[in-house]
């Protein structure tokens, strides 16, 4: 014996709205959770979810009165809502059809002159060959970049700045060593040894 198939979400929506149409009355959620399983075969646990989906789509109205929340729906309201939805979808479909038509025309225009031919294939091959050659020449040019006069001039300027900075720090080291010798009466060799200063430490020429 085959197992009975459960209701789909859309079937539950249809049946719950049908319940409103038949009763033509106001209901609270708890009331619907009791009535819907008996009269429409909708499990009580799914009533709240199905009801909320109908409210979200504007197919069921709701209002809080005091501490209670009531729900209702009438065929005239549902018909109006569905008609408005159909009109919106129809407008959207028409817009998409216009866009498709416009895009098709643009594609057709863009393909003019690109029809397959021996001449076009030859030109495309020539273009590919030229691009490949261009990449090779750019790579070769990069290998000679170090010999570029502008690059060499910039390198010399950077070297001069670095040399000046190094000599400035050397001057600072000598000044600190002199201060330590006079302040603490320490020999210069001891200062060099403790601070790791090499014997040939001097200004750059």
TrEMBL record:
Domain Mnd1 HTH: 17-75
Gene Ontology cellular component annotations, sorted alphabetically: nucleus
Keyword Endoplasmic reticulum annotated: no
Coiled-coil region: 86-172
Keywords: Coiled coil, DNA recombination, Meiosis, Nucleus
Domain Leucine zipper with capping helix: 151-204
Main localization category: nucleus
A GO BP entry: reciprocal meiotic recombination
InterPro entries in the record: LZ3wCH, Mnd1, Mnd1_HTH
Gene Ontology terms, MF aspect: double-stranded DNA binding
Subcellular location: Nucleus
Pfam families named in the record: LZ3wCH, Mnd1
Annotated family: Belongs to the MND1 family.
Function: Required for proper homologous chromosome pairing and efficient cross-over and intragenic recombination during meiosis.
Protein name: Meiotic nuclear division protein 1 homolog
Species lineage: Eukaryota, Metazoa, Cnidaria, Anthozoa, Hexacorallia
């Amino acid at each position: 014996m085959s197992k009975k198939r459960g209701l789909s979400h859309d079937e539950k929506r249809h049946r719950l709205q049908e319940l409103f149409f038949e009763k033509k009355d106001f209901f609270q959620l708890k009331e619907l959770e009791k009535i819907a399983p008996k009269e429409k075969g909708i499990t009580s646990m799914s009533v709240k979810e199905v009801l909320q989906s109908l409210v979200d789509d504007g197919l069921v109205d709701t209002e809080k009165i005091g501490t209670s929340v009531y729900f209702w729906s009438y065929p005239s309201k549902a018909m109006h809502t569905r008609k408005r939805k159909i009109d919106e979808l129809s407008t959207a479909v028409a817009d998409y059809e216009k866009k498709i038509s416009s895009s098709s025309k643009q594609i057709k225009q863009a393909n003019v002159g690109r029809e397959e031919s021996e001449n076009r294939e030859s030109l495309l091959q020539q273009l590919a060959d030229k691009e490949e050659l261009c990449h090779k020449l750019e790579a070769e040019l990069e290998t000679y970049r170090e010999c570029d006069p502008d690059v060499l001039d910039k390198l010399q300027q950077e070297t001069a700045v670095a040399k000046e900075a190094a000599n400035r720090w050397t001057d600072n080291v000598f000044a600190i060593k002199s201060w330590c010798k006079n302040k603490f009466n320490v020999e210069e060799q001891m200062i060099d040894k403790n601070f790791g200063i090499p014997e040939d430490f001097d200004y750059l020429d």
